[in-house]
Predict the 3D structure of the following.
Amino acid sequence: MATIEVRGLTKRFGRVVAVEGLSFAVAPGRVTGFLGPNGAGKTTTLRIILGLVKPTAGTALVDGVPYRELPFPKRSVGAVLEATSFYPSRSARDHLRVLCAMAGLASGRADEVLAMVGLTDVARRRAGGFSLGMRQRLELAGALLGDPGVLVLDEPANGLDPQGIAWLRSFLRWYAGLGRAVLISSHLLSEAAQTVDDVVIVAGGRLVASAPVSELTGRFPVSVRIRSPEAQRLVGVLSAAGLRGHYESNDVVVAEGTTTEAVGPLLAANSVVVQEMAAVGGTLEDAFLALTGQYYQLANQPSGQYQPPGQYQPPGQYQPPGQYQPPGQYQPPGQYQPPGQLGSQPGRDGSVPPSGSGTGSVGGMP
Ligand SMILES: Nc1ncnc2c1ncn2[C@@H]1O[C@H](COP(=O)(O)OP(=O)(O)O)[C@@H](O)[C@H]1O
Ligand SMILES: [Mg+2]
């Protein structure tokens, strides 16, 4: 039984089509990630589900009815859409008590939800002095007041530190474990992949995929990471074979949406020297790429900035080889410690180039 059901949803703002023909369902007892690049139509869809925006066409049902027809909306669905305002001088507890009064709930519920989000110790402190992470927990507490069967959070991880994200992750798992439905949006596919059971992926207002994460990541080819002293020729061979990808560094190329089984024979046939080759990924980005043909930019970048498929970034934009540690400075082999004691030997890892070589970038973007 679906707790949220979106059918044929379309929303136009003038000439802008924010959502087009979108259909998906959210199951209870699971965390569903509503994922896609910025501008994909996620917030618009969530606002329609919550009765805040009227769709141009289609329906969005919560527990089988449109939001506005729910007998007790706060008990059916709790939501945190975007930074709401607090009276800065009001304590966290008083803020929630006001919300209780507005929703016709007993004021004692405020302390219960404060405990659920771990804010009991600061219940009497002014919300205006809260850190971003504490404010987000307070907003979450507000969404939980009605003990809702459905929790909807729009980009809840934005601005949270790793600790905050880890806490949120375990909280959402716990809440779904109570048999509730959790729907969270995110433009960061990889981050959300660790949190959610199911994904609904959108791009340009349209559905890209709707499936359990494991099913989706297993459905598509992985990427292949290749280290070669003739990377430029390697890229030529890959491009000629219709494969797209990006440089990870001067001598490392990642071919996307393919397999080592496909790439190996191709490079052998073209006599490309290979020093390393490994399958990587099987990630949601790979699935997104395979489904849309777009390169998904992980960083916080507006959607227009994807690297176009087929275009390898020229090696010149990476750190020139001369800045790597020259071979002469490595410790000569004779000075290594005998096996078993290698771990403590400084310079053992001297073959690693200094940081900043571009290996941490995604999509070949420096
Ligand atoms: N009130 C609005 N008026 C006009 N355009 C809007 C409005 N709300 C959203 N849009 C547009 O609809 C598209 C989808 O936006 P949004 O739902 O916020 O995407 P997301 O949350 O996935 O980033 C964007 O192109 C956005 O500019
Ligand atoms: Mg949004």
Q: What stands out?
A: The chain has two domains: 4-211, 220-315. Residues 122 and 173 are 24 Å apart (CA to CA).
